[in-house]
Each structure stands twice: as C-alpha cells, then as structure tokens.
Amino acid sequence: MGIDQDYIVETLHRIPEGTHRCRIRHAEKVKSRSGNDMIVVEIQLYGYQATLRHYITFIPDRPQFASQMISQMFDAFPSIAGTTDTSTWEGAVGACDVEYENYMGAERPKIASMVPAAYQVGLPMFGSGVYVYDDQVLVPGPARMDDPMGELARMFKEDMT
Question: pTM for the complete prediction?
Fold first, then answer.
C-alpha cells in the first residue's frame, strides 16, 4: 500500500502566517471552564483542511472585551452582523489573520484577529478560486469598536439566558 504524496502535502503543509479567507464552520454558545458564558467559533481556512477555534468569552467585570470581539466578528463576516443566533453564523465567509503561538512547547496556528470586510478585497472567495474585487458585494458592516458600555456583550448575554 503506497503513500499518497498529495495528501501528505495538503494535510501536513504549514499554514502561512497572515491574512486568510475563511468560513465559519460552526458556532456555539457554551460555558468556559471558569463558568463564564462564551461563544466558540470554528473557523475553516480557505485552501487548508485546518479548522481553528476562536473564543469570545463574556467576562462579567469587562463586558467591553466581548463586545469588541463580537464587533470584530460582525465586521469580518457582514452576513452575520447583528444576529445573536449563532446557528445562523455557519457558512458565513470572511477573513482572519493567522499567527503561531507556542503551546506546551509546540508551535500551533491561532487566529490573531478578524479582518474587516473592507480589507478583504483581493482574497479568494471561499471554495471558488474566484477573487473579490471592489465592485463585488463584500462591504464592511458598521464599525462597533466604540462600545465602551458593552452593549453587544449584554445583547448576547441576554440571549444566552
């Protein structure tokens, strides 16, 4: 029985750091180990079999932290902007920045940040090989980075109870 070299190259190829087109594979509201509400988003990268997890944790004394992360998700994935039903997030296409971190002595890829739709021009469309140009439909959602009171976090928190 021979080894399929194409399979090895595809599955063992190191994901380069930088901006990648991605798709939300799954999103779920759960409890963290410390008991805080959180959303776990599984992100599939275009051109790789890798799925990376992105965590949005609701810290009770810092609601602005979760609001900022939710805002970044909405800006990177305009089709989900404003919805608290994470099951509707599945299949949404956006972009993220990948970098490597040292975890227990091994380097592993992680999502460093979400890339706003305005900066996704020129990235390949997920699964199509077609490139996005200025005249296509990817437009940025409204900026929500100025949410000091944590309104977005409260909106999700209320939906989780």
Answer: 0.72
